[in-house]
Write a structure and sequence with these properties.
Number of strands of chain A: 0
Order of helices and strands of chain B: HHHHHHHHH
Helix content of chain B: over 70%
Number of helices of chain A: 9
Number of helices of chain B: 9
Largest sheet of chain A: none
Strand content of chain A: under 5%
Helix content of chain A: over 70%
Structural class of chain A: mainly alpha
Number of domains of chain A: 1
Strand content of chain B: under 5%
Oligomer: heterodimer
Distance between the termini of chain A: 41 Å
């Protein structure tokens, strides 16, 4: 790893130069598009193209929306991170996650072509694929957080500060990323709804309202109905 | 090179002991494919006749496809986990690991043949093959994990092994059946079904006397 580490200046994993940031953006665009295509491929080529466009947007928009807050929070918590550092670290983490996701694209495509085709009878397959993607994205996200952690250790004076900053960053990225992805759905597609680039109700309500009003009652068995959850993806 | 081969039983000994550095990847891949062909033929004895040849073709095809599909993730996972080896060495390491697994499977060949010709239940032989493949893969990835270096890299290698196993099982469902003929007589059924559903169906269906 030594021969590679020499080129990085934040924890041996992130470059804060404009060139380094540009490279992270390129990785996010390329690898994010590849995984996005695999996400939508089960439903059909049209959603594959849509998701290939939308997934890099989700990642870059999430980084852009959280950037100012994450810089301010890091400063308040005692880190030396400045705006260009936060940009480099956030995009570096996302690039790592996108790279890992792209590496499993052949595996995802196998499942896309070998599982039962999308249709009214394939709700179980839809849910299985959803679980598969959740595990893949979650694991890649953890690797991205690992990159951010190593870079933050360099930028923060103490381990305690680095932990606090990382916690705030992860929370803000998860909260914003969840909503951006919700607004730009569908990615895997729905077994009930037509394929569209963005749903007409994209900005009508948010993911947290949906969790509160639809998923929570279902989990608490306050509502005997089911099936709507899939339709909303 | 030939002189070194005799140290620990030649290529096979070097593969099994994890001292395969310097062996050509192409040769190791051929050993892997050869072993899987033999294993497939032995597994095909469950349905004697043309199925022996079909299984001998399908078994290496399934594993080789799984290796190709999982190769990018193996290389990326290893580099991300901090493995210092260059990608070409990682590919060699992967091929060697699967070759070791194939050798273990062939070593169990007499057992496989015995059960294949005597068993009447498809569920039994399917479970036997899944068990043998899992155990063999466990042996195969041991030297690979040891060569990974750090504890984090070894954990990542374990995670990748699980991915490889799941991909292999899904391929057996997609490119199968291996142990019996397809319903329509074609070589590949290419039925769109999850391996969980297929294996559940095989295990729960009543046994058919052969």
């Amino acid at each position: 790893m030594d021969h590679r580490q020499g080129r990085f200046d934040l924890g041996g994993v992130v470059r804060r130069s404009p060139h380094g940031i540009a490279r992270s953006i390129l990785v996010i665009l390329g690898c994010g598009a590849a995984y996005g295509a695999a996400l939508g491929a089960w439903t059909g080529w049209r959603l594959a193209v849509y998701a290939a466009v939308k997934l890099p947007i989700v990642l870059l928009a999430t980084a852009a929306v959280t950037l100012v807050f994450n810089t301010a929070a890091a400063t308040v918590l005692g880190s030396r991170a400045r705006l260009h550092d936060v940009t480099a670290v956030t995009l570096g983490g996302m690039a790592m996650a996108a790279l890992l996701l792209a590496s499993v694209v052949p595996v995802i495509l196998l499942f896309d072509v070998s599982l039962p085709a999308a249709g009214d009878e394939s709700r179980t397959t839809h849910n299985m694929l959803y679980l598969l993607h959740t595990v893949a994205v979650g694991t890649a996200g953890l690797a991205g957080v690992g990159v951010m952690w190593r870079a933050l250790r360099t930028l923060s004076g103490s381990r305690r500060t680095a932990v606090r900053v990382l916690l705030v960053w992860v929370l803000s990225l998860a909260a914003v990323g969840g909503e951006v992805a919700w607004a730009l759905r569908p990615f895997v597609g729905s077994v009930y709804l037509q394929v569209v680039f963005i749903r007409p109700d994209a900005l009508d309500g948010n993911v947290y309202e949906f969790i509160w009003t639809d998923i929570r009652p279902h989990l608490l068995r306050l509502d005997g109905g089911g099936g709507e959850d899939d339709a909303r993806e | 090179m030939r002189g070194n081969d005799t140290d620990r039983g030649g290529w096979i000994g070097r593969l099994l002991t994890g001292t395969h550095h310097g062996l050509p990847a192409g040769g190791v891949a051929l050993v892997m494919l050869g072993c899987l062909t033999v294993y497939g033929a032995l597994a095909g004895c469950f349905d004697p006749g043309p199925q022996i040849a079909v299984a001998a073709v399908k078994m290496p095809l399934i594993v080789a496809t799984a290796v190709l599909l999982c190769l990018p993730s193996f290389v990326v996972f290893a580099i991300v986990a901090g493995d210092p080896a260059p990608p070409t060495d990682l590919v060699r390491r992967l091929v060697a690991a699967i070759a070791v697994a194939a050798l273990i499977m062939v070593a169990l060949g007499p057992v496989v043949w015995l059960f294949s010709v005597t068993a009447r239940s498809l569920a039994f032989v399917v479970l036997l093959h899944v068990l043998i493949a899992t155990v063999a893969l466990g042996f195969g990835v041991r030297p690979m994990r040891a060569a990974s270096g750090s504890r984090g890299a070894r954990r990542v290698a374990l995670l990748w092994t699980l991915v490889f196993l799941v991909v292999s099982l899904q391929l057996t469902a997609f490119l199968g059946p291996v142990l019996g003929p397809t319903e329509d007589g074609r070589l590949f059924e290419l039925r769109r079904e999850s391996f969980l559903g297929r294996y559940h169906r095989v295990v729960t269906e009543p046994s058919q006397p052969r």
